[in-house]
Amino acid sequence: MFSYVVRRILVSILTLLIASFLMYMLTALSADPLEELRTSSAPNKDELIARRIELLQLDVAPPLRWLMWVGGVASCLAPFAFECTLGNSIEGFEVALLLPPAMASTIRLVTAASILAIILGVVVGMVTALRQNSAFDIGTTFVSFFLYSLPSFLVAVLLKEFGAIGMNNFIQRGDPPQISLIWIIGLTVVSGLVWSLIVGGTPYRRLITFGVAGAATAAALVYMNLTNFFLEPSLGPVLLFLLIALTIVGVTALTAGLRNRRALIAAGIVGVIGYICYFTLQGLFDVSTIWTLLILGVVAIVVSVLVGFAVSYFGPDKGQVIRAAGITGFFVSFFVLIDRFMQAWPSYMANPRINGRPVATAQDATTGYSGDVWGTGIDQLMHFALPTISMLLVSFAFYTRFARAGLLEVFNQDYIRTARAKGLSEQTIVMRHAFRNMLIPLTTIIAADIGSLLGGALITERVFAIAGMGAMFNNGLRVLDLNPIMGYFLVIAILAIAFNFIADMLYAVLDPRVRVK
Amino acid sequence: MSNSFKRGRALTTAIAFSAAAAMVVSGCTTTGGDDTDESTGGDGATGSTVSIATTNALTSLHSGTAEHNLNTNGMVDYLTGNGGLGSFLTISNELEVVPDTTNGTMELVSEDPLQVKYTLNENAVWSDGTEMTVDDLLLSWVIGSGWFGDGDENYFSLAGSTAGLNTTDFPEIDRDARTLTLNYSEAYVDWNLVNLITKPAHVFAEQVDMSAEELTQFFTDTEKGEQGNETLSTLGEFHNTGYAITQMPTDESLLVSAGPYVVSDFQANDGGFVQLSPNENWQGDPVQVETIILKFIGDASTQIQQLANGEVNVIEPQADANTLQSLESQGSDVIQGDQLSYDHIDLTFDGVFADANVREAFLKTIPRQAIVDSIVKPVNPEASVLNSQLFVSSQEQYAEAEAANGYDSFTEPDIEGAKELLAGATPEVRILYSSDNPNRVNAFRLIQQSAEEAGFVIVDEADPEWSARLGSGDYDATIFGWISPGAGYAGLPQIFKTGGGGNYNNYSNTEIDGWIDETQTLIDDEERMLELQIMIDTATAEDFYGLPLFQSPGLVASDGSVDGLVYNPTQTGVVHNILEWSVVE
């Protein structure tokens, strides 16, 4: 094991060196950083050129400059003949100082998108696998490949046109904004169709599903119209109660099965506590900061787990009960928070900087907007919603396919057949035996993906004006600013190598059949 | 037994943890209960606001350094009086010098020897309330003149050159009369562009623990050409890098402004912004727009959609056919104009083009009208061929130059005429241009087609690294762009004088050299200047120097919420007449 790790690290360093040399040479030879100065008619042109040559050491041949660069980087790890530096940008900024904010922006951009893509992709992928070769399966395959093949700049531009400009026009011009009848009918039919395809079964059962899902959708849309949802959204005590009740039942059904009474009771208690907290915590919410909310979140999960623990104290199935209670606690807190964010919506909309047009097409925050944690939270959501969706649409397809194939493969294993033969319920087989084993290859894929994700999304960042790693690389290329490009490369390469390494290790840990030598 | 003990302990720990958390929660809250006020008010959200999208991000609060001479930096400098509004002069739309008397005046005392007097107004004051003094003027002179240090080791990195000011003596200062007088030892044509209000002396003095007055004393006492001086190095370092910012500076002295606005908030990089608030001590015409926000949006389509969504009010994107079409289809107000940059084709004066007949024949084949029709017309339907090497169309002198210089006879190709001149010869012409610039590739294709009809053999020298080959002589013609300096004449020797720094095609005409030398010493004589310029322009046409092709189109678009927008071709761009803007309610 130890020798394996050492060997891997040595090989990684070698890879890094060779790759950085190739990258450095290719970039350095691709254009002329003095172009704009050579074609300037400034009287002191020669002086400007000399200054840039001095700043970027352009008088040194690229291979030697690469050696100096490597020297500077190596000195950051161990004291060396050179001083620790990643070099200067063309404007004279230290690249080492430019990297952290760019990385932070990228992390903010990709985190939500990747998590959502994984969750949605896995859920949808599993459903398609369970309904293999059904109309839903084929439809999803079609849609996911369609989205996968769309160029991301086109998705971004379309999203902005309809999701931001169109949505804002709808909100601003309606008085109050009302969903038109055509939309209500259309969405009702679509939702009914999708649900009936997911649930499947006999034609009669499908018809029932279609009716129920359609009615629920229509009711929700009409409710939104009646309550002026787009200007004064709220869940309120009634809707919140319904949501909590649904959560209790749904979570228990998925984690433990409804027949497990203890799990149902624990989830129920958590739900009730959450509902009470909704009324008692409003005062605290008004003066909350982000830290208050984080602590409250932790407390909520801890309390939920404790409830599960207490209820199952004498039972044989602690794990399931605690899980049911914990997950319920998470969702209930989430709904209570959503309600509070909705309460802050009208004052957000009234801010002169927002001016009744909440969805933003670019940038990461509204310039000059300042508000409490709720206002800034909404502001962040309104800015990151579109870039997140546009990234999500692409990676979603990938995870869907992966989860589908993974689950289908697991279903053909002997242990699943054994579980079926034992007479276990379908829920137990899918959630406990198949799902977990499907996650093993997925884990390694995700670990490897994180490395490349941090490289930023070049096009998404540019189109949404977010100054992440991709934007840094892009700008560097545009003016042939070599050092930021290499800084970008360094981060990406190290992460890619490190996460691949972690992925291999994880595989060995998760799957006892795999041993590293 | 031990199991239940563990459970009990876990429970106690959890309870203790929750109690501690509750205490922390109470500590982690905001004080005020009336947060709704905060979220509807917000700071700086009162009064009128105009948001402008700019393509480049702000990198420094001082665009006068070599590393930070970028257009957004220049816009902010213009608004904060670092050689813009509130300094001695600004440049008009027609590229003429307009005196700005808010804080002081400049006056030509004598033409020969050249003597210029700068006088500060009684009430001239920086945005932090500090009075403007001769110390400020002297500092600007020290920075701009290269008085200390020698040519190779200058303390101050300059975007511009020391030309002109390097021929001045140490200025005469009259502290009480608030005047500073420059004595030039040689005539300097651009004396009226020398601006001595840039950055405040008291801020620089602070860097070396002096008062502004002591700093002036230090400058007076220090020898000309002094090298390796520690104080000067500190000042130079501060000038060169002190104003470069990657986040809102905590040191407020960096924000001190002489103009109508002061930087009040900043976030770096694409997607960032800089916010400008009124300078409370501003003495000039009152500002009508309370807050200016420049948002840094690199992508043109993003700018356009932000405009449609009301996130910005004014944009100045790269003009191309798509841009114009989308702006028009979404109903934005579009103002078009010509930029200062122009494409041209230059002939190298040795090799195949040493023969004037070959040059003339080649120029006769260039389809300039067709180039304009295919490249510029889709963006600006009113575009026309550029007919001057010295003037751009927004200048008043352009019409007169165009009428006289003879470039208009090359508008349409004359293949027959070219064939006659060549008399059956088939000269080989290597044309160098940027393979990355679609406009240049287009222009090359059109020229190639037309020239081959007349019998020329065209060699395609497209090269992404074309600029490094300029002046190497391994090509016969090159298509590229110049950026007209706009106001001022100091750049003239660069391109057309024998051995000039931008004279890549080895052009030499002793008559022109003489005229150029004369322009550099002309003081306050616009008539003679125009005459000389037209003579130079005409002579280049007679020498078949090459041909100007077209000015790049530019545009400004708005959502109609701002009154008073005018297209401006200079680096300052649309904000140049900011004091005339008002927000439509």
TrEMBL record, chain A:
The answer to whether keyword Isomerase applies is no
SUPFAM superfamilies named in the record? MetI-like (SSF161098)
Subcellular localization, as worded in the UniProt entry: Cell membrane
Is Transport one of the keywords? yes
Of the GO CC terms on this record, one is:
plasma membrane
| Domain of life according to the entry | Bacteria
Query: Per the database record, which ranges form the ABC transmembrane type-1 domain?
Result: 103-507
Please report a single Pfam family linked to this protein.
BPD_transp_1
Chief location bin: membrane
One GO BP annotation is: transmembrane transport
Q: Any transmembrane segments, and where?
A: 107-130, 142-159, 179-200, 207-226, 238-256, 263-284, 290-314, 321-338, 381-399, 439-465, 485-510
> What protein family does this chain belong to?
Belongs to the binding-protein-dependent transport system permease family.
* Organism (species): Agrococcus casei LMG 22410
Membrane topology is: Multi-pass membrane protein
Q: What is this protein called?
A: Oligopeptide transport system permease protein OppB (TC 3.A.1.5.1)
What UniProt keywords are attached to this protein's entry?
Cell membrane, Membrane, Transmembrane, Transmembrane helix, Transport
From TrEMBL, chain B:
Looking up InterPro entries in the UniProt record yields: Peptide/Ni-bd, SBP_5, SBP_5_dom
Q: Please verify whether the record's keywords include Metal-binding.
A: no
Query: Can you tell which superkingdom this protein's organism belongs to?
Result: Bacteria
Q: CDD domains, from UniProt?
A: PBP2_Lpqw (cd08501)
Which cellular components does GO assign to this protein?
ATP-binding cassette (ABC) transporter complex; periplasmic space
GO annotation terms (biological process): peptide transport
Q: Which PROSITE patterns match?
A: PROKAR_LIPOPROTEIN
What does the UniProt keyword field contain? Signal
Q: Where is the signal peptide?
A: 1-21
Domain Solute-binding protein family intervals: 109-485
- State the name under which the record lists this protein: Oligopeptide ABC transporter, periplasmic oligopeptide-binding protein OppA (TC 3.A.1.5.1)
Organism from which the protein derives: Agrococcus casei LMG 22410
